[in-house]
Each structure stands twice: as structure tokens, then as C-alpha cells.
């Protein structure tokens, strides 16, 4: 469902003599099969968001190639948008000044969702995510947890085969977090939606992901099951300790010369 | 095709509704525009009494021009801004917009037309009626003249959008758009005819200002309203600039998609 083949993305930053090239992602390769639930971990600045932007066609890779749902993201961005759902936990796709249900209507037009399918899916999602009480509330008045549930609904209204989540539980309280996780687990198990999840919350990983990939300095540092990840550290270590060791231990290569 | 039209029509309708959430701000704008209209009208009356027939206008034409230009401020966003895009590029939220299966430019345009329609009702009509009541203004004769003005006004909004879109898009390349914003503000104020009718500017400078795109925003629609300009020639002038600037915006959008870093995380 997702194929990444030696993808790289570099940026030129600064100007004049301070001009240099930063490799946000380099030589990254992995595949994700249909129906997988994969956690994508990495310290801040490791290249996670850059990867997600390449997978969704927002950024073109500077080297290598990617395929998502059978499409080249950069070339077929619009077609791809109809097959994937994306949630950026720190941003919103909803219209700030409009009632939540109006955002969903716009998304129906945007993604050309058939009226009957739309009604059915919205009812289903509204039930599962408990949106009923704030459908008529302008988005700017929603709590973070409500807004996030709205954003997840928005990403799923067109029934995408792949769901990409960038920190979907950030800032949520324990109850909202548990509800969100429960929903995502069911979505993956019952609908077979492929999920790629980026998070700093290892609870998300433990509760949801069978497979974990870890990126650091733009390269894949680990790719395996949750148990294999645990096995990289001494027995009795928490997942947090294991991951922290991998983050700091994976030798920080000096930034490549321009 | 029909779907696409429906989508953008919806976005325009939502743009209208979105702005109606800020009714108090719009009414405050209408009040300010009206008060400044009165002040400017007295200045222009003094000027035209000293120099009757200046720029081919009589006193009533000049007062009409004054209140029309005040009425254009809201819908044509003469003082700049009006688009959320600049802020979204700066914060990185534009990543969400770029994900959508829609054209960023058409999307912004539809939203902006909704905004303009709302501000037309709340910020254009009050100063115009006030000017008419206090000073008396020119009223176009007959439906053809009104239709010509409606077309010219809409094209003015279109040119205004195209210019503001380019300004907002500059945020993709430069971190802070305040410099571009203030440059754009000065150019728009003086070259649109907002401060003084462009017909007042003499010689080659006057000629130049009347051929630049900003003239399509205030001067040309006002002249069409006043019946001072050949309608077809005026509309052709506006259409050319709208097409050229929108095409430039489309190219810039494509370049932005290709090259540029989306800020933050």
C-alpha cells in the first residue's frame, strides 16, 4: 500500500556564505502492506513530518521514489488525495468559523462523496466518535478533543484505503485518548484501513501498532515488531527507555557537507 | 465540470457565511469608511470649487468618486489582506490546504468572492447611501449602465484578489511578508485612485498610472459608474489585467508547490 524506495529530501537553507543543504530524509526505504498498522517513531527533527509530506504529495522528494495506494504522490496528488486520509494533530482541516457539520458538507463536495454514502458514513462516524452534541458548534468553540474527533471524521468521510496520522492524540486527556485509540483499532481491524501513525506517545504505539519503524537523522534506524523493538533493550526496560536509548544511541552522523 | 462549479460556489457561499461571523467588525468598517468619506468629500469639494472641471469631473462627479472609492475599500480590500493564506503559509497550516484535491488559487478566489459579497452589503452600501443623502451623487441612468458597473466592479474585485493572492504567496519564499504588504499597500493606495483620482496625475506619470493593474481596482469601476469611460474598452482593460495576474498566480502556485519548504514540523 505504501512503497518508499531510497527516497530523500534535502532543503537549501540560509543565504550567502551561510547557505547549506540540510538532508531532512535520506535514502529511506520501506514498504507497508494493506491492512497494516504501523507506528512511525523518531525524535523531533528526525524527518517524520517530511516523510508524511512526501507520502501525501505535499512535498516532492529530491531523490528516490514513492508509491502510495498505487500512485506517485507528487504526480498524482489529486487522485491520491481521494484515496488517503490525513490527520495533522497540530493543525486542522476544519473551517474555523463554521459549524462542524458545514465542514463535513464542504468535504463531501471536495472529495465528491456520493450523498447516500456520505450520510451513512457520517452517521456511523458520528456514532463511533460521539460527535452528536457538537455538530452545530463552530469549530473555534470546540475543545481540543472534540476538534480532533472532528478532524479524524473529516479524514475518513471519503472512505480512504490509507490513513496517515501525525500525532493524533497530542494534547488529549486520558479519556479522549483512550476513545481515539479504541476507534483507530476498530477502524483497522474491521475496515482493514491501512494506518501509518506518527506519535511521541508510546502508549499509542503499545496499544495500537504491531509494527514499529524508527527514523533518525533522516534514515530508518529500526523496523520490526513491537516485541523485537523491546528486545533491543535489556529485560524489564520500559518501552520508553528502549526508545530513548535508540534515539540517543543511533550515532548522530554529522550533517552532510553541502 | 458541473461538480467543480458547485464545489467552488459552495466555497464562495461559505466564505460569505464565514465573514458574517464578524458582523461587528464589518459594521465598524462601514462607519469608518463613511466618516472618512465625508472628510474626503469636503476636501474634494474645496479643490473642485477652486479648480472646476479638474480631471474632467464636476463637483458632483468628484464627490461621487469619493464615496464610491470609500465603498470599494471593503470588497476590494484596498488596504490589503483579506486572505487567510498568508498566515497559513507562515504557520505551516497551508500543508493542509495543499493536501486537498482542489486548486489553491481557485479555492482562495471562491472564498474571497464570498467575502467580497458580504462586505459589499455591509461596507459598500452604507457609505454610498450616506454620500447620496448628504451631498447628492451621480446615479447611473438605466439598466445597461448599472450592468456595466456591476461587471466592472466584479472585475475590480478579481484584480484585487489576484494582486493580494500574489502578495500572500510571497510568504512561501520570504519568511515575513510585512515588507511586501506595506509596499503593496502604498502602491494600491496611490495607483488605484484611492487617494486621488488618477485623472489628476499629469503627463507620462498619469498615463503610466492609468495603464497599471491597480487602476482596474478603483479608477476604472468609478469611471464606468460615472459614465466617463467607454464601457467595452474599460472592461477589456480589466479583463486583461485579471487574466494576466491570475495566470501569474497559477504559475507562482505551481512553483510554490514544487520548491518550497512548508514551515514547521
From TrEMBL, chain A:
Subcellular compartments: Cell membrane
Protein name (Swiss-Prot/TrEMBL): ABC transporter domain-containing protein
GO cellular-component term (any): plasma membrane
Superkingdom per UniProt: Bacteria
Pfam families assigned: ABC_tran
Primary residence: membrane
InterPro entries with a match to the protein in the record: AAA+_ATPase (IPR003593), ABC_transporter-like_ATP-bd (IPR003439), ABC_transporter_ATP-binding (IPR050763), P-loop_NTPase (IPR027417)
Lineage summary: Bacteria, Bacillati, Actinomycetota, Actinomycetes, Streptosporangiales
MF annotations from Gene Ontology: ATP binding; ATP hydrolysis activity
Bilayer topology term: Peripheral membrane protein
GO biological process terms held by the UniProt record: response to antibiotic
Domain ABC transporter span(s) in chain numbering: 2-242
Keyword annotations from UniProtKB, A to Z: Antibiotic resistance, ATP-binding, Nucleotide-binding, Transport
Automatic annotation (TrEMBL), chain B:
Keywords assigned: Membrane, Transmembrane, Transmembrane helix
Spans through the membrane: 21-50, 62-83, 182-205, 235-253
Keyword Transmembrane: yes
Any coiled-coil regions, as ranges: none
Highest taxon of the lineage: Bacteria
Keyword Zinc in annotation: no
Protein name as catalogued: ABC transporter permease
Species whose genome carries this gene: Planomonospora parontospora subsp. parontospora
